[in-house]
Amino acid sequence: MPKNSIILIPLIALCLYSLKVLAKDPPYGRLSVNSKGQLVGSNGQQVQLRGISLFCNQYQPEFYSEQVVRAVKCFYNGNIIRAPIEPGVFKDKPDQDFKAIFNVIDGAIKHGIYVMVDWHDVSTQKCGDWEMKEFTNNAIRFFSAVMNKYKGSPNIILEFWNEPGCDWKIVKKYHYTLLWAIRQIDPNFVAILGCPLTFENVKDPVYGTNIMHMLHFYPIWEPLPFTFTTKILDYAKDRNIGIFVSEYGDATVTPNAPIKPNEIKKL
User: Fold this and answer.
1) Is the pTM for the entire model greater than 0.90?
2) How far apart are CA 58 and CA 170, in angstroms?
3) Residues of the signal sequence (predicted)?
4) Across the chain, where does the E strand assignment appear?
5) Domains of the chain by start residue, with CATH
6) Residue 33: strand pairing partners
7) Residue 249 CB neighbour total at 10 angstroms
8) Per-residue pLDDT tens for 22-63?
């Protein structure tokens, strides 16, 4: 695995400590991204985060709870949970989404793990000027509320845009706009920047402090060959561009789906 890529790996293990956990700092303290594009802990050592991504809360709101956060830590040996919020739902039901995301963040802080706050568009966002302005303003509203409430928390990672389908120039402008806006509230958080699966985003990356570019990996669904994904990783590594794999799967959601565990091991 390239040293500057971080993969969320589901790892089932029995929790060896009490479920009754008091609020405490996450395992590696405050995270940052070093000059090599590596995610590191407060001691400067490279870290690996592993955990579970929830499904959007409008479909399974019962999973946005402290009990689920505790289960990710204690029964899956996870040190991070990813909580997606769908932009279209947030626009219509912001109170519902704020309640859901705050439940997960509070649980992560209580149980001492990280939480990735994910603005979860799935390549459905329209890319025109008006649509992007609304999308950007809603994202700023959402992330500003989160960071105003939890300013300075070492537990929080922000994922600005899950799987964008727009041209990289549009996506890149969006990321710079959000970075400027949210850094006014908290200058130190780590941001994961959503990217189309192309070479363009690593050849023309976003520059800044504590940022990593996103990569998702599904060997069953992926239309591009596996070697293309590894080439992106190698290119980024050689240029000290941080890559964070915030989502992956080795099968589809259909019954009796084939899996490709060897492809996951290669990555």
Assistant:
1) no
2) 28
3) 1-23
4) 5-7, 32-33, 39-40, 51-53, 80-85, 114-119, 156-159, 190-193, 211-217, 243-248
5) 5-266 (3.20.20.80)
6) 39
7) 18
8) 567 899 999 999 999 999 999 999 999 999 999 998 898 999
